[in-house]
Amino acid sequence: MGPPPSGPPEFLDSGRSSGPVPSSPADGARRPAGRRRAVIAGGAIAGIAAVGTGGYFAWSAYLATGPQPAEALPASTVAYVSVDLDPSGKQKLAALDALEKFPAFEENVDVDRDDDLRQSLVELVQREEGVCPDIDYADDIEPWLGDRFAMAAVDLGDGGGDVDPDDVTPVGVLQVTDADAAEEGLEKLLGCLAEGGDDLGGWAVQGDWVVLAETDELAQEVTDAATDAPLSDDDDFQRWTDAAGDEGILTAYAAPAAGPLLAEAVGSFGGLAAAVPSCPAPAPGASVDPGTDVDPVVPPCGDVEVPEPDAAASALREQLEDFQGMALKVRFDDGGLEVEAATGAAVSGLDTLPASERGGDVVATLPDDTAMALGLGFEEGWFDSFVGGMAAGSGGLLDVDELIATIEQETGLQLPEDAEALLGESAALAVGGDIDLTEVAGMPDPTGLPVGIKVRGDTDRIESLLEQLDAAAAGVEHRGDGDHVAAGFSADYVDSLLGDGDLGDTDAYRDVIPESDDAAAVLFVNFDAGSWLDRLAEGDDEVAANVEPLSAAGLSAWVDDDVAHSLLRITVD
């Protein structure tokens, strides 16, 4: 067997191979990447024994993402967004395979598979913004610019107590491939920007990264802090970025310290009540006629008790004070775009609702030609939790007791019992693929529309409550079968909802709602179902051509060990 190849193969050329930057021994004093390389080397030995040298390195390059800007930032970073122009080979191919199916991308984005994305971005800024036209990418930037960069807000305070906003400074991070060339290139950029009246600020080069800040001193302070304790090693950063799934083209992170900062910002802007206009004072001598048609829930203007300016924001501030952190990642995978987020269940609000994993239960039983579906799962006590959350969020503007009393008086329902019975343990709102959305908005009579709701629960009680509400008088058809009740504006569509549908077994659904079995809520759109999308794009050939590649979209949310997850996934044919 021959020696291993000298470098990993390129599956999509970003303009260069990423690799470590030669540095002086002093620069090498902080090299956490060295430990990682040792681990990788150990894995490589095992891989050689298992699958052979060439196969191992090819597969590693295909899946690897390389060093990230979090290595150059300190653990005191409050917020962070990074972009990777050189993700794994798998993602590069998936991204271009998806994007190249859209005519608008081909026409407006002049990027080929072997293009240098860095050069494309730099020349775009030069062309569109007129920035530094004399800078030559090949001579002044390409020799040193890497593929990864980030923007961050870093706390440079003493680390005691809450973060002082005055101690937070914005910084940028660029990956570099040659530290000396980076110094020369940045000096030239500084001179160019200064001539145009702009200021690049200061910077500090450390190993594979250059940190940009308002001054050289701030940049060096950030670099020194990262040397002692990098963000990439921080427990909160690792927890939330791991919870948000695989690496991708973009990673965003907010540290727990961001919560109190946001809470302070909310307080400084005042609450919802501050936006409520006060009642104008009557003109001298004028009489006030409150009128006779008074909304039983919202009192007339003169009787409104406007809470203190910050009362409406108090609940949000309390949630933010308990903020545990969050992360979001954007990636391409298996023919689709994914946006996945993870945060604490408390700040997401999901902890206030009784836990449920039934969001996809009824959706999965819908007809396979369903165009859109929204599914929710319910547990006993959800109504009180939901209404309580509404009251807290209103900051005193909503009188919940009066609202409930009014609903009970108008409908004859007993709340919360009847509301929880009506929606059962799982419910789904469904739209058929033959709906014409261009006509819905102006349609005075919804009769015949392929729109309906399907509920799993106590069918006898649900139908009794629908009779009590006189659903038929509103043109709503409803009937039950087994554990399900369906209601809608079309008898035929109601019958189809009650059938043994297999939407949950279709490739379109499973591809975009992979967590259906555990989800508390799901939203599904099938772009290929029926003719609804064709009708919506009819008359505009450009729009029609650019929606034609779309296959399906799905958004799901679930809670796992007090971590709230959400996943948006969009696939193409």
Task: Characterise this structure.
The chain is α+β, with helices and mostly antiparallel strands and 573 residues long. It is 35% helix and 21% strand. The protein contains 21 helices and 16 strands. It has helices at residues 32-51, 53-63, 89-99, 103-108, 117-129, 137-141, 179-195, 216-228, 235-243, 258-269, 314-321, 345-348, 382-394, 400-411, 417-423, 437-440, 459-468, 491-498, 507-512, 532-537, 541-547; strands at 77-84, 145-155, 168-176, 202-206, 209-213, 250-254, 326-333, 336-344, 370-377, 426-432, 451-456, 477-481, 484-488, 521-526, 550-560, 563-572. It is globular. The protein starts with 31 loop residues before the first helix and ends with a strand. The model is unreliable at 1-64, 269-278, 286-300 and 306-312 (pLDDT under 50).
List keywords for this structure.
573 residues; alpha+beta; 16-stranded antiparallel sheet; 21 helices; 16 strands; 21% strand; disordered N terminus
